Structure prediction request, 105 residues.
Amino acid sequence: MLRGQKIAEGDKVVVFYSSANRDEATFAEPTRFDVGREPNGHIGFGGGAPHFCLGNHLAVLELRVLLETLAGNLPGIAQDGTASRLRSNFVNGIEHLPVRLGASG
Prediction:
């Protein structure tokens, strides 16, 4: 049972991390953005939770190396258009980001 709903063997269940951070049973004003909200046991990014992704640190390092390498080799790289967001219930990210090379400044 989950909040009065029976879950049978074989039923599909999905976790929406963003929904968990807006749980009306946990937070007095679940939809209000409040960086000082306490207690705030949010589970965004799996941080601090038992299911925190072990690959998180590797992914952060890989992105840092990628961006530092790009910046070092292409100092004039700049955004050249509107980013299009990835449409997903699970991942918040950019799908397409146009850039130009040789920009000044």
About this structure: The chain has two helices and four strands. The chain has a mean pLDDT of 80.
